[in-house]
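Suppose a colleague, Dr. K., hands you the sequence of a protein chain of 1455 amino acids and asks what its three-dimensional shape might be. Before reaching for any lab equipment, you can write down a predicted structure in token form. Begin with the sequence itself:
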Amino acid sequence: KSQLCVSSCNSSMNSLSEATDGDISTSRSAWMNEGIGSSWAKIPLATGSSSIKRVYVRGTWPWNTTLSVVRNDGSQRIISNLNPLLNYKDVSIDLSNEYTVKSFLFQANTRDGVMRGFCYANVGDCKTMTINEIAARANDCYEQLTLDLGSVNFVNRLVFKSSGFVGGAIYSSIDGYNFFNRSSLTRFAGKNTQQTLILGKVAARYIRFRYFTSSEPNREWDKVYVNDIEVFGFPALTTSLNCPNNCSFVGTCDTSTGSCLCNSLYSGVDCSFKNCSPSCVNGICINGLCVCNKGYSGSLCESAVCPSNCFDRGQCVAPGVCACVAGYGGSDCRKTVFNSVNSGNHSQHLLVDYPLMAGSSKVVKSATRTKFYQSQFGACGGSLHPFDCGDGSCASSVGVCSLRSKYDRQTEKKAWSSTSYDTKTIPAIGFFASSASQYAYHVGDGSQGTFWQSGICYSTGYVSVPVINILNNACVNHRCVASTSIGSNSSASFTAAITDMNFDTPVSAFFNSAAGKGFVQVSLVTPTAVVAVSAKTNCGGVVQVIGVVSGTNAYMLIGTIQTSSNYKAVNFEVVDNSTLSGVVFSAIGLESSWRGGVQVFELAVRAGPCYEFAGIDFGKPVAVSALTVRHFAGSAGYVTATYYESSVDQMTWQVLDTDGSIPSQSTDTLDVELYPAVLMRYVRVRHVLKEKAAVKVFVWEIYAWDEAGKNGQLGTAKPNPISFRNLIGVNGIFGWGTGSYSSTLSPQRGPAVFSPTCGHARNYQNWNWDVSDPTAIPGFDQMVAPGSTDHGALPGSGSRLYFDWLNWDNEYTAWKSSGMEVEVSVQFTSSSFPQSLFKDPFMNGYNYGFYFSRHFGRKNGTGDVTGMEVGNEPWIAGMGYSDPAFYSSLLMGMAKGAKDGDPTMRVLPAHFGSLNDSLQRFNASHVRYLDALNVHGYSWLQTVLGRTGVHPEHNMSTQHEVNDLIRFRDAALPGMPIYLTEWGWDSAGGGEDCNPPAGISGPPSPVCVTEAAQALYAIRGALMLARKGLQRLTWFFYGNQATDAASWDVVKGLFSRSGLRSTSAAGYQLKQSYYALKDFIAILGATNFQAVIREDHDSFIYLLANGTNYASHIVAWRPISASESGSINVTFSSTSYPSSAWSLGHSSLIKASLPLLNSTLMQWTMSISIYPTVVALILPEEAPSVTSVQTKTPSQAPSTVNPIPSSQPPSALSNTAPSIRPSQYPSTLNPTPSSPSKFPVSTTFPSARPFLAPFSVTPTQSKQPTFVPITMSKSPTIKPSYNPTSFKSPTFSPSTTSAPSKVPSRNPSFKPTSSSPPTTFPSITTPTKNPSYKPSSICPSSKPPTFIPSITSSPSFSKSQNPSTFKPTFSLTLAPISTKQTTVQPTSCQPSTLKPTSLKPTLLTSLSKSPTTNAPTLKQSSNKPSSSSTLPTSITKSTKPTFKPTKVSSANPSA
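The predicted structure, expressed as tokens, is then:
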């Protein structure tokens, strides 16, 4: 825990932290260093050398592992030989003869220091060791207890009984900190030996008994027993008290007060505490000795402690921090800086400032463009520290701001442990099963690699299952009669073995002369029709199996057991006998007329089907809100049904609602939401088998979560300073699927199509497009033909990039010109760049990051790119890099290179499958060069259909797995933005369905939702994710993919229909989600999330602000599936008045009814549905007259809304520029009103659907702001650390077996052409539906216009015309507009104008800045014809694209 441990392949200070954390369930490995053929781990004592009495170790050990002690002089002594036979066993070693131990050394060597043969799964010549725990003690073990007498007393006598110790002492104290030895304790035999101790007159409040236990090997587990302690004395009253302990004879007693005046060397109430002189530098003084803080040593704690004393190659400047001399690095200076062989140290290169690689750093760029982008920066721009930390300081990255605000190396281990943020399952204390119960624990062991397998119920396996065998223990309950025991008082005990569910315990029923037979008869508890009867007998004659018909004394023969079946279990299927089937029996019996009687081993009856089950016991009733289960019910056709059931007493079982039948033959997991939460102590999976089905069934795992849900709760909802326009983006690719440069596309084909829906776009830029291998320098400054300065022309074959046709300037200039910020994911995979190609991952990454940033950055480059990601998903099976250290070094290099190239470039890491995977690859050292965290999150649920698309608010949606990253960020990196760079839903629409293409059979892709659902979830998802505080939401994808069987099969349909428009095969049709997002941005693009009003299973209601510190809108909806319908009324309080209302999520904007307002109580009653209803707000004094429910006029309503007191920090909404640097926004505080508001807000905000009581309103007449600060009422929980890749898709990502492809699919083989112009142009109008005007309640105007212009004809173009001189002509007509229409399409007004301009918005903060309106400007289209091409319209994970643009025709250079 002193963070000083080091091992063979990792010198990080906390590389072995779990080996000394006091927990034997955690572990760390010391990997084999193949270069030296050994593994080792060194564990020093944090306090320096010391005498040690005993050391304890637990772990897994290779053969020939030694554990040695290292002395002060460096010499070593082997104290134990460890080997695999001791794996997972406690090893305790006596060190009583070793007096000077400085450290412990584990070491495992190959035979001669050279690795030979093979090493696979730790089999072969493997020397990697795993240490669960090492612990040492310097003193004898002891137990102690302390009595608190409540006040200071004079104690003169103690009487007590104790045993089990070998010695001890009694101490006294006045203050509870300084204890004085008053007497020793002598061992007495027996527990009842009474001891009396005379103390004289001792002033004490606390009495401490310390008992030393035996260290003898056979007595280490002795316990100490203490009872009957009696303390005799009298209170130390001030009137009778001189001074405590006579001031210990080192002070003067003040008899008037009874207090001591100590001399300078002592302190304490009785002067018993010896001071330290000089004072302790880095520690505390206890009785004259300095007890040092962690990481310090010395008599005054003046010396910092560093691992291995910095190997004498540097100076220890702080605990665990070495300042190494030139040429050395690492946490202990033992590493040669450039020696990266077998190093797993993520931060190996941090201590060296790498010089720039030789080569041109000149950037060919437009001076005008560069000047424009430089002008965007504020006070921090232009320096090497362009990011504003929000506290008046500037930093080189947002990560530096985050580390500066809260980073404590003492808590680094906990803060950077992913298990601290996972949501834990409800722990099980027990397990049960119908059969093979010894393996039932596998259903709760957290491992997807283990499972419970049942026995075989049919035909006689059910006999040992009490809930199926209805005769279980019937004889014990006096329901049996046998011919031998008639009239006997001991019949129950004599016949017990007949129904003890054991085929091996016989009872002899001798021949009864009176009855003329030997027999056994067992009564049923309740007369019933039976399914089967089973028995095992031994008899010299035929044994008849009979049934007694209920209500009569009639016997019916069920079957006979021949002598050939003696000692065999025999089963009779009653249901197969038409005469017996359905007959209700009251008793079942066996009888034989053979005079030797009959020996009965067992008699059993089954009244229902066979079934098998396994489950877990929580130990007490708990409320369960979610289950995830994995099972398999054997071969198809043998199972009737599978059920999930719960119980509080294991007697009565409730079938849980799984929203559909459970697929018995599926081996995938199934997510089950339980709403409301179900109280249970037991939960089980039960497979009901078909009759005569002799099969085994399986259960892998049952996970259960409490009311916090599968993904836990988040903290208090805070205002999100990012406007929705800047929040939402779209993922695109080169040419947006057209095969031509975006700079050549018309507004109907390129990035301009998508700019109305979002504020930024993200491109996948393949590293292998730019260079032939990762060691090469990319020629971004030479992407044009030699001598050319025209960045708008096609480059021919003059580009210095690997693809000589490629000019990213042409592409990104068009993206930027469309009004979107550009972010780039630098994509690389092991198939395009195998790890072996990286000669030095750090330097290879550094070079690419530097030259990319220097060319495209906003300060030193073209300004076209605002941010870059170091990889997209470099972890997917078969295409990623499994070695965390490799990516860690690459990330460090590329991020540092990017910052050196242009400090304004925002840098993000790649997304990985889980938080644990991410934290294995980057740490606080990397964060210094990062500006945001990166995550992908799709909304899926494991259902009976497999992975299925689901609405975003669903309590078990995988989209909520982002909560882990949010909790980590809040704890370790406060203020660090989180970018959700991929999210969305697949859907039909745009002329394409979700069925597999021709050549592939199968059902539609279950991840697909309907076209209407995709549009609806896009809006609701954006609102919910903004509430989580995410600062980028980049939709995947711009368009549909996979038009043929080959491309569909690569990803099994996943992401093939996630676009906002269809593929070229369907004519690039815009889908309903496109129009929904376009309307959303038009209405709410300038607003941002502000607060939660209500968030539960019935409704989500949010307050929005308009970006100028005023509440502007309330938005509400039902958080249910799009397949459900119907509206409900919700009531809540608000001091604002509604102005106008609109329904979102449709293909066009629809006007909605205003909420019903009760101005007396200031309550809204609002009808809500699955579609979000947004209501514009006005202040009470501006409200219209309302007569229906008011009891006072609007003039009586509050005329003002109190601003935030000036002492409170203002919201960050007023002083940020979202379109420039959204990643650097400071975290904001909730505005705090001066007194309670009558705006009741939820106090807990879980990630998904919380389980809250119905929303209640307490009317109040106070005049307060529209909302109050939100507080968290429940601490976040954590989740299990398992990562079942075989059944559960990775966090926020598709499963590794069907990973989506996000890279252009093939190697470019030709260049884009500038083809002959078409005979007609496509329509130049932007894609809208029902274009019309905005009513006055939305757009600020004195009255609605009577006419608007519309284009009635498209421009024409002939082949003879020169496109460079072509000017289109239009015919305009004025179309009258009906004022009664309720379906309108917004045109040119900004979201900030959704209220009448004469009305004031509701003030949120004390700032007085007025809202501004930025009216959009119309830009003339370039009207360039689209180049014909076959450039990629989809993304796959193959290595290289198969296209390149062709040269422009010299005959038509202006094209």
